[in-house]
Write a structure and sequence with these properties.
By secondary structure, the protein is of the alpha+beta class. Helix content is 30%, strand content 33%. It is built from five helices and ten strands; from the N terminus they run βααββαβββαββββα. Strand 4 and strand 5 form a beta hairpin. It is globular, with a radius of gyration of 18 Å.
């Protein structure tokens, strides 16, 4: 399997660097130990890849990946070759700005998913673009490997195991599997009269 990446923002790394340095100096509450112990000189970044999202409504209406909305740029942050964080840049009026730094298990889960993809017979010899898909309303996150003829999804944490386990899925099959949960969640939202759940 050969990974490809979209054309990254020319100033992406320069934009991230001060935010990463500030986070390394803070080393405060909620920062994972590997991140807290990392030194700035030993930090490296992956190539940039894009996040995409689908809503409950999209899934309920049977929409597919071609309807996914473009989101932030993602960079995996490594210290001594170990993934320690997911850094994100947002497109804001024609340029990129620092958006967030996720110290949770998103980065490690992404690396695990890519290892799983490497071992998949389905992806042997294929060239795919690395993407990440979010269905936030269902807490679903999946690594999206976009190929010329097919798309595969590998769910990662925090995706509930009741919806999907970490394995390589045909994209259409996984989205079909998520549809009943999306329908149920939408009914719950639509039935809410308090206005607390949003619309």
């Amino acid at each position: 399997m050969q990974l490809t990446y979209p054309k990254a923002p020319s100033n992406g790394v320069q934009t991230l660097r001060p935010a990463l340095q500030a986070a390394l100096q803070t080393q405060g509450f909620g920062v994972n130990r590997q991140f807290a112990n990392a030194s700035a000189g030993r930090i490296s970044l992956s190539e940039a890849y894009r996040g995409y999202s689908l809503s409950l409504e999209d899934l309920s209406q049977g929409k597919g990946l071609k309807d996914a909305r473009l989101g932030n740029w993602h960079y995996l942050v490594f210290a001594d070759g170990v993934s320690i964080a997911d850094a994100q840049l947002a497109d804001v009026r024609g340029h990129v700005e620092f958006a967030s730094l996720n110290h949770g298990n998103l980065a490690a889960a992404t690396v695990d998913a890519l290892r799983l993809a490497e071992q998949s017979a389905q992806l042997q010899g294929k060239t795919v673009e690395l993407r990440v898909l979010f269905v936030s309303a269902l807490s679903v996150v999946a690594i999206w490997l976009h190929g010329s003829g097919e798309d595969v999804l590998i769910p990662i944490a925090p995706t509930p195991k009741t919806l999907a386990t970490a394995q390589v899925y045909d994209a259409a099959a996984l989205l079909a599997r998520l549809k009943p949960a999306a329908d149920q969640a939408r009914q719950h939202f639509d039935a809410d009269t308090t206005g607390l759940l949003g619309g």
